Amino acid sequence: MPSNMTALGFPVVTEQDFRHYVYQASEFGQKIETSCGSYTIWTPGEGIELWVQTNLHKRIIGMNPHFRGEASTRVRLVSRVTKRRQSILDGSFLGWVVPDPAGDNGYPLVFDLPDYDLYNELTLPCTKSVQIAAFAHRLEGYENEQAYKLTNEHEQSKGPETFYPSGLYTVHHRVQDPPRAQAALSGYVQATRLYTNPITNQKFYWVLVRALGGQFDIVADPQVVQGKITPGGIVKGTFWLSGRILADK
Question: Whole-model pTM?
Fold first, then answer.
């Protein structure tokens, strides 16, 4: 079954499969101490990151995947998202994408952070460059704009670049509490590659996409991909968003 782990080429089907990679990442990763415990980040290659969480009692309490790609998006971080029934080391930000220096025509999004506890002292609001990895639940590829329009006639008024923060709203268009790091987007393919996970030898797609002034590093299990993904083409899909704040230059 496709998941956020299979989007990076880890064939996780059962809880036991997941635990296997938790222990592997714990053994080979690099530990980072935080106020509420520690993270252990394992980077086996090809942009793959696994972040193991350990609490102050030295007990492993979770793990999140991330993909370190080439995307960079200016985001006005507005508030923290408090989540229920999740690890103390989990967390998210609610922000607005800033597509131009004037800050006009922005749009909201929520993204989870694999290293959230490192930003306890961050003063909000503030504007940061964020590298956002979009883990595909579904991904459709189109060779060109004409092919996209033929299939998406009802969305022609919006154009090929769209972003909808689906995790912010319920099916009845009410604000969701708490909001989730989920989105639907479409945009132009700037680059793409079929990677091989160096640990499992499983394939996964990487797609660098431009959408409404933002950039996103899409990763996808080949099982969720339909159509053809090609540079200059268009992709469309639904995603979980994981972000890492980039160092100011």
Answer: 0.94
